[in-house]
Write a structure and sequence with these properties.
The complex is a heterodimer of chains A (about 290) and B (about 375). Chain A is mainly α. Helices cover about 65% and strands about 0% of the residues of chain A. In chain A, helix 1 packs across helix 13, helix 7 packs antiparallel against helix 10 and helix 8 crosses helix 9. The longest helix of chain A is centred in the middle third of the chain and has 32 residues. Chain A starts with 11 loop residues before the first helix and ends in a 15-residue tail after the last helix. In chain B, strand 1 and strand 2 form a beta hairpin. The chains are: A mainly alpha (about 290), B alpha+beta (about 375). The structure holds adenosine-5'-triphosphate and magnesium ion. The site of adenosine-5'-triphosphate has 13 residues of chain B, from strand 2 and helix 1.
Amino acid sequence: MASRDVVVYKTPLSRIWNIFTVVFIAFYLLWTLLPLMIMFFSSFKDLLAAFQLPPVGAFSKIGLFFDFTPTTKHYYNLFVNLGFTTYFFNSIVAAGGSAIISVVLGSMCAYALSRYDFRGKPDLFFWIISTRMAPVVAVLVPLYAIFRGADLIGTKAGLILAFTTFNLPFAIWILKGFFDNVPYAIEEASMVDGSTRFQAFRAILPLVAPGIGAFVILCILFAWNDFLFSSIIGSGGAKTLPPATVELVQPQNIQWGSIMAAGVVTTLPMMFLGLLIRRYLVTGLTMGAVRE
Amino acid sequence: MASVTITNVWKYYGKTVAVKDLNITCNDGEFVSVLGPSGCGKSSTLRMLAGLEHISAGDIHFGDTRVNDLEPKDRDIAMVFENYALYPHKTVYENMANPLRLRNESEETIKKRIAFAAEMLEIEHLLQRKPMELSGGQKQRTAIGRAIVREPKLFLFDEPIAHLDAKLRARMRGELKIMQRRLGTTMIYVTHDQLEAMSMADRIAVMNNGVLQQFGTPQEIYNHPVNEWVAGFVGEPPMNFIDCDLIEEGGSFYAVHSAFKVAVPSDQAVKLRGALKSSGVRMGIRPDQLAISLGQDGAAKGSIKITEPLGGDTLVDVDLKGANHVLVKTDADFRGQMNDPCSLNFDTSRWHFFSKETGVAYF
Ligand SMILES: Nc1ncnc2c1ncn2[C@@H]1O[C@H](COP(=O)(O)OP(=O)(O)OP(=O)(O)O)[C@@H](O)[C@H]1O
Ligand SMILES: [Mg+2]
């Protein structure tokens, strides 16, 4: 049986390649992490300290960045005065809710599309994907009209529904690919063992866990970062973090400190989520189940 | 436990016909083997029995119950799949526990049954491993284990030991047979290996191209194949076929070939009368039903093409005069060399005659 160890052969070329890789990764990390670091530190500085910058090119004065007395006043301001507790909660409910609904409906739908043959199946599948082809702005106006008619504007339910309309086709599309790769034999074995079709479906869910994990992340990310739906359909009662952050940019007073703090509050949960779910993203779970 | 009756069953995949008008009756507690070459519809038949494949036409009964419209879980069967079909995320133990869990057995019963099956299959030390960490043979034994932890009405085995090494396969043949006898559960066992079918089954259903050729005991299949195809498929090394003419001389029948003229025993002659008018027959004789000698006093003369000593006995490929070559199984101490002249004697009581046109056996 194939083991998971990768066989490595050393050649002069691979050495050069290794060095190149390390250099590339170093630059890439700098490029990615620096803005995040600046955001993180600035959120703990008061305004004066935040704008203390060393002259261009003076690398010896780089310590200036770290020379400040930390303050949590921006966070305090954010959560106590600006109502970010509610927005944070709204973001979690909207992103989580739409992810759960999409993954439940999406996996069942993807399973059906993967396993059953019926007339018009390719057309149905294409129709499902095609709903994702139009840009969000194009559907926003009719969607707004429909949602207002149904009294869903400014409600969390409305926002969840809006995200789900966009996430569900995506879920079906991603998960169908994963189900297609699960051999029929495993669920057949399960049915012979004595399970119903639905139990057999549940029995193979662990095999598509990488797909579900990947999809949940993408789905939450989409909803969490979304600005358009949240500001239009969620406006008022169901405001989420991104529109709330934008409101901190006022014409006469850009609240940099709070904006940085809001940035941290928005970014951190997604980073933790990524770490948490990372192991589901490792594929290869089906290896060795079926004779190749 | 139940008998199984397959009545006029057909299986279509779109336009391909996988099984044609199949009729098999399998008694309660019987071990029936479905034997045939690759692609002949064995798995399709088994999957219809399991309820995994729609039955295109015909009926299947378990006992008196028609099962056509029953779901697999309601048929009370246990199946071993051609490709193992283990749950990759579960350990061997959990794989075997699954059918019991689904039937709400107590944890204690589960433990006991698995211990019993694991001991028999010699996989006790593997119970905590995942399928990925098993060799092919170990996977196959786990799959068998999952089937035998229950006591179902019917076992369905699809080439369960095809991927074990020869030694383990020989042992598993014996053990599966013993297990089936002991449990007394009806077994339908699909294989393409005629040795497996011959050595294990009470009765064998030989299939080719979706059509049932013959259904009978191993002895019937071996000694009285109904047609040339079955005769050639069953038996190792395979039966020799020699085209010859049938003539009547002075009240006796003779099989005539450019290399020999042999009298047909009178009890056979009665059944061969119809063949006289046809333009020749095809004679079939197994390699161990031929006797070879280096002298020229045998019925058919030829020369040795090659000898293959196998240890216990020797296979000799003989060129008969008239461009036929014939395989003979003889003793290990046979001393013939390449190109040596030799002669053959036929065990005429056990040879076969088939129609040249239809391949059907005359007796
Ligand atoms: N799902 C399917 N769709 C279309 N044709 C199929 C399908 N399954 C099997 N067939 C065809 O039906 C015929 C019988 O297949 P089956 O799997 O029953 O053969 P088998 O006797 O089990 O062969 P093997 O010994 O190779 O397993 C074959 O010609 C095969 O190509
Ligand atoms: Mg098969």
